[in-house]
Amino acid sequence: MREMALADRLYPSPSESFGVPGRSIAWKLFLAKDEPLQTSEAPSASHILSSIRISRTKYTALLLEKMKAPDGSYESGIIIPGATALPKKSTKKSSNDLDTNNPLSLHDENPWNAWFASVELRKIIQQDVERTFPEIEFFRDAAIQAQLTNILFLYSSVHEDIGYRQGMHELLAPLYFAVSYDSIPEEDREVEDVELRELCSETWIAADAWSLFEAVMGGVSQWYEWRERTVDNAPSALATHVNLNIPDGQNGIQPYVAPIVKACTRIQSTLLNSTDPQLWKQMQASGIEPQIYGIRWLRLLFTREFNLPDAMKLWDSLFACDPTLELSQWVCVAMLIRIRNELIPADYSNQLTILLRYPSPSSQDVMAGAPHHTSLLIRQALALQMSSTPAAGVSLMIENRNFLNIPLEVPTPPPVQKRGHSGRQQSASAGRIGGDTSSSRGHARQPSSPQMGLPEMIARGLLERGESLGINKTLMSAVSELRRNIPDLASTLATVRTPHQSMTSFPLEDERLSEERPPWEPRTRFEMEREITQLHARDKRLGESLGWIVDALLQDESGAEDKERLKRQKHEALECLSYVRDVLISHTTALDDDRLIGEEEALQRKLRAKKQAEEAAASTKLPPIVSPPAPASVVDSMSRLSNTGRSNRRVSPPPFMTSPVSSGTGQTKFAPWNHTRSSFSNASPAIGSATLPRPPPPTSTSLRVSGKKMDDQTPTSGVYDPLGALK
Q: Alpha helices of 304-389 — where are they, by DSSP H?
C-alpha cells in the first residue's frame, strides 16, 4: 500500500477531486498505533476494528467528562456518540459542597473556575473553526463546526502542556472531511459487509476524526510547543532541600529555544546547505529567516502552500511513508529546490513573496506520464533523506526538468539601476568632443571622478546595499504614502482645542466599524481605549450612587421626624444597591439614572441643577453700556505767544475721540488733545477766555521775554510759581 501511495495508484478513481472514496480507511491503516501495517501479524479487519473500538470508547468517556458542568448538567444540543441519553443530573448536595461548588463562591478549589475557563477556551476555538476553509461549503455547517470545536477542546484538555494553538483547526478539517465522506449511514442497507459498516459508521465520525487527529499531532505537536516542559523532580527527604537540575559542563545552562525554531533553522542552515549550497548562500545573503516560511509549512503540513485536494494527496504519501512526520523537513528542502530558479535571482522582497505564496506547477508544464507533483515531492524528500549531498540536489533538479519542465540554468537577474547615475551618464556621453555618438556606443565608462573620502564611500556603500536589498524602494514608497496623507494629517492637527478640553473629550473612531470586521479579528486600540473610558465613567457614577446609598442607610430612625419618609428612603437605597450589584455582575456600561438614586434625591438634584444653571446664566449676563462724559476743551497757552519763528504744530487725536461734543449753550466743545487751528496774526483769540474756568497761567518763557507780572502772581526773588500756589 505504501508503494501504491507513492506511485499515485492507491485509489481506483482519480484523486484530483476533493472527495476520494476510501481515503479515511487508508489513513486509519497508516496512522493507527496498532494498525496491521506496523505489526508482524497478517493484516485483518478484526485487528484494526479492535483498535478503533478502543479509541471510540475513550472519546465518549472524555466527552462525558470534559463537557460536564460542576453541577452535573450538559449544554443543550450536545451529541454523545454511542449514548442513547445523557446521564441524569445529581440533586444531592451538602452544605459543605455549596461552600465550594458554587458559581458565586470565591474559594480556590471551586470547580466552577475551571469550568468558566473551559467555556472561554471553547469560544476561542469556535472563532477559529468558523473561518476554516471559508470557500468550502461543507465547513459552513453549524453542526460540523460544533463537532470540530469539541474535538479540539478535548485535545487541549488532555494535552495541557500544549493546549490549543492557532492552526490546529486546519489540520483537523481535512481529517474530518475524509472520515465524513466515507461514512455509511446506519439506515443504509446496501453495504452488506458488516465489518466495513462498523469501520465507516456515520455515528462515530467525530470519534474517528479525533483518533486520526491524535495520531497526526503525535508528530506535529512538537512544532506547537511554546514553553519549556516541566520536569517532575523526585521528592527530597528533607523538607527544606532545594532540587537544582543543572547539566554538567560549563555551558550546561542554555536558554530555551522552541522546537519549531530549531526545526526551521535546521532546514535552511543544515539540510539545504548540504544539498544546494548555491541556493543556501543566496538566501543567507538576502537575510531570509527560515521561521518566516518554515513555521507555516510545518505546523499546517502544507495546506496553505497547495490547494486542499493536492494537500490531501501529499498527506496520502506522507502518512504512508512516515507516520512520525519527520520526513516533513526534507519535504521543505525539496520544495525550496523546486523553486530555486525563482529564488536565486530575486531580491529580499521578491524572495519573501515567493516563499509565502508558493507557486504550484501548472498543468501545461507537467510532462505526459509524470507523477503528481506532490507525490514527486515525497519521492524527492526520501532521496534527500537517504543521501544529503549536492549530487542528490542535482538529481532533484534533473527530475524537475524531466517531469515539470523546469530548466536547469538559473536565469540572470536584472541589473540593479543606481539612482541618480543615468542622468550623469547621458550628459557625459552627450558632451564628448565632436558629438560622435557612434564611437561612444558600448563605452559607458565615466571620466575618472575625484577621489572620495571615507564618509562618501560609506554613504555610497549604504546606498548600493539598500538598492540591492530593496530597502530604498520600500522607503521611497513609504515617503510617497506619507506625502499623500499629509493634507489629512494637517487637517486633523489643525483642529482647535480649548484649554479645558481633555483627550477623553474627543470621540475615538475606529479604522473600521465593528460590524464590518469578522469575529476572529482582534479588537483595535481605539475600541479598547473607548471601553476603558466608558468603564471609568460608569465606575464614577456607581461610586456616587453608592455614596448616596451609604448616607441613606446610615440615617438614624430614632431621632427622625418623618419615620415613614426615612423608611421609604432606605427601601429605595436597598433597591439601588441591588441594581448596582446587577450592573457589576453583568459588566453593563449603559446605566439607568432613575435606578441609581431615589425619587426624592433625584428631584432635589434636578432642582439644584436648575438653580445653578440660572445663577450661571445671570452671572454671564453683560451689564448695560454707559457712554463716558464729554471732557471739557482747553486751549494751549502757547498759542498766545506771537513767536513768528515757530511753526504751528497739530497733534492728531485718536480716532475714537475726534468728533466734537455739543454743549447745552450751543457752543462746540473739543477734547483737550484736539487742537483747533488758530491764526496768530489776529488779535482776538479763536476761543474766548470766558469759556475757560480761569485764565491760563503764564509760562516761564513769556515772563522772561515780556518782563510783565501777572495779577495772580506774587513777585518773589527768583521763585517761579506758574500755578499761583504761593500767593
A: 308-321, 328-338, 340-343, 348-356, 373-386
